[in-house]
Structures are given as C-alpha cells and as structure tokens.
C-alpha cells in the first residue's frame, strides 16, 4: 500500500501544502507524489474526491506545483514573477471547472466534473495560489531558512517572523545542527577519542 511512499506534509494553505509535495529542493529532494495514485491520495486528503489519475495528469500537477513555487519564491525575494510560471498558473486556473458548494453543515465542498476532475482540482489549487500571491489573505511569503530546503511558505504568524517551512522538520533539524556545532566549538573535557575528522 501507500506506506512505502514518503508521507505528506499538509499545512494550512492548500497551495503551500501542494508545493510541499516536493521537499528538500536544494538537497536530496523528496518527491511525495511519485505516482498518479499518490496524487489521488494527496487530493483526497485535501478535499478532492477523485477516482483516477493518469501519468499525464500527474505531470500537469507537478508543472503547476513548480510554477507556484517559482512564483512564490519570486514574491518572497522581491523578484519579478517568472513569465512561464504566471502562464502555467493561469492556464490551470482557467481550465478548472470546479464549483464550490455549501454543505448543510456549513462546510465547503468541491463539485468536480466527471471527465477531468484532476484538472478541476488543479484549477482550485491554482486559484488558491493566485489569492496568496496577490495578497488576498493575511500573511507574508518567505523562504525556509534551511539551506537544503528553501521552500517558499506563507507565514501567518502574528509577528511574521517564521523562519522555517515547518517547525517539526526543518526547524528542529536546524536547531539540532546548531546544537551539535556549539558542542564541537566547546572543547569536551575527559572524553577519549572524541575528536572527529
Ligand atoms: Zn523547510
């Protein structure tokens, strides 16, 4: 089953949860949607009930993902938006035919067309990215401080000083690295063979 695949990292924003399906972009990258079935799993967890997905649709999804990440990175670093990223995001937003529906309980669901439901879901993700990139929601784009990650994330903390895409992963790893570095700097008393090459 899917246990053999890397777990998902779902955040609070749809589009950044989506870009987080590829992690460690500047290191040994981890592809968290390696197969069409895994994209279906991810979409299900994100509120889109989809029966099937083709390899071509997975390729579309990854293209959208990288375009969102490129655009968000540009915003975070005050650069101009890459033209190709803008085009891909817009194409997906225009193509999607998902309809938001209100549930009797006051929740929101997505009604997807039966023929191209993956594209419909990608359209919703593209529209979510547009909302975040254009400042429709309260927050600030930033890049993760981890040098092997550098993920673009959306900081909604009150102080807007979040440094890592995720505290549980990148944040803790950086903290640990600093701890080890500090220990190395202090000469360790009375430990045989503690020097490392
Ligand atoms: Zn990170």
TrEMBL record:
Domain of life: Bacteria
Domain Zinc finger CGNR: from-to ranges: 140-181
Pfam families on file: ABATE, zf-CGNR
Annotated protein name in UniProt: DUF1470 family protein/CGNR zinc finger
Gene source species: Actinoalloteichus hymeniacidonis
